[in-house]
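FIELD: query
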Amino acid sequence: MGMDVYGEAPANKRGEYFRNNCWYWRPLWNYIFEHCTDVLTEADHKSGHFNDGHLIEKDRAERIAAKLRELCERGDVLDFEHEYKRHIESLPDEICNLCFGTGKRKDMEVADGCNGCKGKGMRRPVETWYTFEAENVLEFAEFCESSGGFRIS
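FIELD: result
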């Protein structure tokens, strides 16, 4: 699943379309909400995690872009990326929820034991599947600047 974000009145090609798969989008949208509480509401934040066509109007898109650019220029986004990655790497493995730590699934035949943990009985937590990259924030800021407002679909 991914998030397709369409510009409402794009000023150029850059503002037409932005896409992230869910593993990139959720951390990005959470970061934006955390730093744009004067622009986005709780309802915007919630709807932004669904493909329901939620609209962010032009003036708010421009304010998001300005805030993200400011955060990028100050180095805050890059600092956050490093801290995010340190946090993800620090998380301990968990007991596999498919084989319950046995390394072999009982619900189906799978080569090499369990396809969730590759037979180890342990796996990385779901939280580690989500990615945050400063470059993605900058690309979204550029999209917002030229989008004329956007819909999250």
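FIELD: remark
The chain has a mean pLDDT of 96.
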